[in-house]
Amino acid sequence: MAELEYKPLKLARLQAGAVYPQFTQFSPRPVNVDSPAVEVMTDLRLVAAATIDADTRIEAANQAMIARGVRSLLVVDADGRVLGLLTARDLLGERPMQVVRDRGGRHEDLVVRDIMTPQSAVEVVDIRDVLRARVGHVVETLKHSGRQHALVVENDLVSGRELIRGIFSASQIARQLGVAIHPEEVARTFAEIEAVLSRTAATI
Question: Is the residue at 179 inside a domain?
Fold first, then answer.
């Protein structure tokens, strides 16, 4: 039975030294707003994490996103530690030009490090909360944070470090809900997802 009101999940900051797992396989399937939240999570145990070096030029990073068919990249160092998160919105929005205006230099010389969201500012959701949540909770979490992506973390019992277990993406959620995707129009994408939420609630 669908819930009438979804509340955002608790957000925290990504811990320094966070790492990411390797993969086997993954195939997203259609969902509804009351489906388990894990069904719209890209599980990094099943899908290889899309990563990029912090010193990669942003044009190359954009090409890497296109080649992988993703809209976000984990920024990692040589030891696999996560330094930050880079999204298509960072690349294609106002951030690059803002950096050029503030610091000078040329747009083509910018690197990932210049425009990424650094590890200390990346918001994450605990896998324990996700396992109890529904798709509607994830939608409200993304809307509440004003972002199109959220990382899911768990504690690695072997290393004792925070492990990035998965990623939520507004565009993937929209695809799995069967609604139109507007990658460059965040508000419009969320509006159409919320229309699905409203229609579902109305049938209860």
Answer: yes
pLDDT of residue 22: 60
Looking from the CA of 166 toward its CB, the CA atoms found within 13 Å total: 21
- Amino acid 48 reads A
Q: Report the CATH number at residue 91.
A: 3.10.580.10
Residue-number span of the structural domain to which 135 is assigned: 12-202
Taking the CB of residue 153, how many other CB atoms lie within 10 A of it? 24
In a domain, 2, yes or no: no
Q: Averaged over 34-54, what is the pLDDT? A: 93
Q: What is the pLDDT of residues 45-74, one digit of tens each?
A: 888 899 999 999 999 999 999 999 888 999
The per-residue pLDDT for 116 is 97
